[in-house]
Amino acid sequence: NRDGLDYEVDGIVVKIDSFEYREVLGETTSVPRWAIAYKYPARQATTVVDEIKWSVGRTGVVTPIAILKPVPLSGSTIGRATLHNADEIKRLDVREGDTVIIEKGGEVIPKVVKVVAEKRPRKSKPARRPAKCPICSSPLARYEGEVAIRCENVSCPMQVRRRIEYFACRSAMDITGLGTVVVDQLVSAGLVKDYGDLYSLKAEQVESLERMGKKSAPNLISAISDSKERPFDRVLFALGIRQVGLHAARLLASRFSSIAELARSTAEEILSIEDIGPIIAKSVVKFFQDEANLRVIGKLKRAGLKLSQKRKRKGRLPLKNKTFVLTGALSRYTREQAGDLIVSLGGKLSTSVSRKTDYCVAGENPGSKLDKAKALGVKIVDEEEFKRLTKKS
DNA sequence: GCCACAGGCTGATATGGCTC
DNA sequence: GAGCCATATCAGCCTGTGGC
After folding, report:
1. Which of A62, A111, A177, A323 has the highest CB neighbour count under 10 A?
2. From the Cβ of A262, is strand B under 7 Å away?
3. Is the pTM value of this prediction over 0.85?
4. Domain BRCT, which positions (predicted)?
C-alpha cells in the first residue's frame, strides 16, 4: 500500500506514513519515507550513588563513574554507570549519597536518568571535578571547546598501562593473554615501560608474575611473537596516535608504504588523503615529532614488526564505493573476518547506519542497527546473501 | 556556518573457556 | 574453585569531515 500502514509484531507497533520508490543497488524497491517504531519503555530501577570515581584513559581523559549500590535490572546487576564528563554531572546534579533512577539504554548500557531530589541527604555537597589526576596527581587541563578534562602527564602510570592494553587488544596487535591484569603486573614489576618492551620479554621473567606459570608464560611470549605478523595498517592503529582508529589507519596505510615515509610526511601530504582532515593530519605529524614515540618505534623495528608494506596491486573491486554495516553474529565469519573481506573487495565498513549505508548485514541476534536500517530503507542482507555478494569477485 | 554522517573514545554486563 | 581473558553487544557523548 503506497499510502502507508500501521502494523504490529509481537506487540511492537510500527507506523509507516508513506512510501517512496527508490533505486537501491539496481533494484527498484519501495521504502518507507517516514516511520516510527514504538518500543517498550526501558525498565528502570532506583539505587544509591555510593561514590563518584574518576578513571584515566589512555589519552589522559579523566572520566567520572558512578559507583552504585548493586541493583538488579533487566537480567543483570548494575553496580557502575558512566557519567561521561563533568558537564553531565552538573546537568544531572548528581552527588555522592543521592538516590537515583537508572535504566539500561538499549537494554545494555547502564545510565543514570535522574536524581530523586526529595531523598537527597541533608549534608550532601555538589560533586567537584578533581584538580589533580587521581593516579599521578599531575594538574588536569581542560582546553577551550573541549568537554573532557585531561591528565597531561604522558608518563602517568594509568595512561602507560592503557596504551599497552590498547596496543595488545584484538583489533590492534591481538596479543592473546595480555589483558588488563597482566599489563598491570608487567608495568608494576618494571618489566615493561612501553609497548616496545613487550618484544624483549623472556618467559622466565613472565613466569615470576602472579598467576603465571610454566604453561602461561611461554604462551604469552609466543602470542607476543605471533603479533609480529600483523599487517602494517594494524601496527599503525596499535601505535595509538590520537584520532587514528582502524579506519584512519587503513587510509594512511593505503597512501604511505612505510612508517618511515609517513614519519617524513608533512601535514599537507597527509591532508591530501580523502577523509583525513587537518586535525588528524596534525595529530599524526605531532606523534612523529615526539622523541619518545620514535624511540618506541625503534624498538618495534628491531623486534621485526611490519613497519612497511608492498604496494598492493588493485584487483577487481566488486564492492567498490559500497558501505556496509554489520549487526548480529555471523556463523561463518567473525566480525573481523567479515570486515576485512569487505575492505579487501573495495567496500567500506561503517559502525553506524545512515541513509548512505548500502547494505546492513544482519546475523543472529541483531541489534538496533537493524531497526535503523529498516527505517531508513537500507538494503538488509543475511549471511547467505552476504556470501553471494562477496563471491561475485 | 550549519548540518548530517561517521568515527573515536569510554564505559557497561554476561558467559564460556582457560589456567593456576 | 577462583580468577582472568576473550568475546559479544551496544549507548552516549564528542569531534572531525565534507557538502551545501
Report:
1. A62
2. no
3. no
4. 314-393
